Amino acid sequence: MSQEHLFPYGHLEMLDTYAIITCNEGVHIGFNEIQDIEAILQSAYHGQRFGLITNRVNQYSVNPLAIKKLFSDECLVAGAIVGSALMTKVNADLENKIVDGAPIGYYPSMSFAIKWISDKVREGSIA
């Protein structure tokens, strides 16, 4: 599976076991945007376990409570944040503390994030 969905605030690419979201510069991701993202993910993965990678190449803001809501979906087993700025790592640590349902990791490159997410999804499928 490889599907892409464009939003006014970014784009979401769905692959077999994980999705990659890239948000536009300067946008704010709140509950309304998370609701849109959830609907697309639920439709694409149909109850299958998956991971979510956030490609933070742009600067934007995110409501941490909206992220917590997104990660309350039991099918979303892990999240990875890819970025190079120190603030991106700080935000990843904060989000990991707020989210109860799944671990969130920080990675400086997409390849490391994909490997980690793939491993987490695979581990979740075995259990």
Structural commentary:
- The chain has 127 residues and is α/β, with parallel strands linked by helices.
- The protein has one domain: STAS domain (Transcription Regulator spoIIAA, 2-Layer Sandwich), CATH 3.30.750.
- Helices cover 41% and strands 29% of the residues.
- The protein is built from four helices and eight strands.
- Strand 2 (10-14) and strand 3 (18-23) form a beta hairpin.
- Helix 1 (31-45) packs parallel to helix 2.
- The longest helix has 17 residues, at 110-126.
- The radius of gyration is 13 Å and the shape is globular.
Secondary structure elements and pairings:
Blueprint: E1 3-7, E2 10-14, E3 18-23, E4 28-29, H1 31-45, E5 50-55, E6 61-62, H2 64-70, E7 76-82, H3 86-98, E8 104-107, H4 110-126
Parallel strand pairs: 3-5, 4-6, 5-7, 7-8
Antiparallel strand pairs: 1-2, 2-3
Helix pairs in contact: 1-2
Descriptive terms for the model:
127 residues, alpha/beta, Transcription Regulator spoIIAA, six-stranded mixed beta sheet, two-stranded parallel ribbon, 4 helices
In short:
By secondary structure, the chain is an alpha/beta fold. It contains four helices and eight strands.
Identify the CATH homologous superfamily: STAS domain
How do the strands line up in the largest sheet?
A: 1-2-3-5-7-8
Unreliable parts:
none
Element order, helices and strands? EEEEHEEHEHEH
Envelope shape: globular
Question: Biggest β-sheet: count, sense, barrel?
Answer: 6 strands, mixed
Output the structural class: alpha/beta
- C-alpha Rg, in Å? 13 Å
By CATH reckoning, the class would read Alpha Beta
Strand elements, count: 8
Looking at the overall shape, the CATH architecture is: 2-Layer Sandwich
Count structural domains: 1
User: What is the arithmetic mean of pLDDT?
Assistant: 90
How many DSSP helices? 4
Quote the beta fraction: 25-35%
Helix content: 40-55%
Distance between the termini: 24 Å
Under CATH, the topology is which?
Answer: Transcription Regulator spoIIAA
